[in-house]
Amino acid sequence: MQPQSFYRAVAEDFSAVDEIIKKQLTSRVPLVSKIGDYITSAGGKRLRPLLVLLCGKALGRESDDLRLLAATIEFLHTATLLHDDVVDMSGMRRGRSTANALWGNAPSVLVGDFLYSRSFEMMVELGSMPVMQILSRATRVIAEGEVLQLSRVRDASTSEEVYMEVIRGKTAMLFEASTHSAAALAGADQSQCEALRTFGDHLGVAFQLVDDLLDYKGDSQTLGKNVGDDLAEGKPTLPLIYTMREGTPEQAALVRQAIQKGGLEDLEQIRLAVEQSGALKYTAELARDYVKRAIECLEVLPASEYRTALIELSEFAVARTH
Fold this sequence. Notes:
Blueprint: H1 5-8, H2 11-24, H3 30-41, H4 47-58, H5 64-88, E1 92-93, E2 96-97, H6 99-103, H7 105-126, H8 129-151, H9 160-185, H10 190-217, H11 220-223, H12 229-232, H13 238-246, H14 249-261, H15 267-276, H16 279-297, H17 305-319
Antiparallel strand pairs: 1-2
Helix pairs in contact: 2-5, 3-7, 4-5, 4-9, 4-17, 5-7, 5-8, 5-9, 7-8, 8-9, 9-10, 10-16, 13-14, 13-16, 14-15, 16-17
């Protein structure tokens, strides 16, 4: 359990979600359970199920189906992680070897498929057509976001607009689906549903902006992944896009070349360029702006410890170092 106060508000529910995850991971095929256990036991922040619990309880929903929805969202997230690590050929996540590094690509992809399928079984168990609609659309948009990102790898002409479209799909969409589906399950009115959907989108965008910032500011030990991973893969993230647009001709040329060839040969020079060009400051300010707008969306909720926790969680999203 994380020490942050926003986890404490739903500590009991959070433990119950962990139990549901363990129970739903069982399979008659041992390798499925083994890989599933491995990736879910890595922990992580579990922010998406946490958002489900906090939003649902802030709207007065006190039932087991909220916990089941939280577990469903975590299954969807874990499935995307398994697939992402294969696509990105990542060797490290959350400070440990990735599943594909240990078992190979084929089992990782197939267990990701198992988790997707299991999440849809859990959705059916919830018996809510609005929730099914939100989550099934989310899985499609996430896949599109990943494919769009893939199509822009080593493309130094990628604009800030395209970058925002990528992160809205691949990251913000599941945050949005978490908050929106919790509101739908709680029977919130249309204005609350829309406000919480927007809250999730803005928070997810801010979260990914900080992630992309930490690729140049963090260290591997704290991050739980390799610093410079995005650069190594030739992904044009906002700090790089801004440096090419606003930096000196030399800084722009250095970044453009690094994106086009991938790899980490010039990592330290790139780190210096994104710092000196003001790209990190720009990205951090944009993240703070999105969090400010996210918090404003929470005004539709009645005052409670859960609304307070959502505000604290939003502030953590931009203050974090990992």
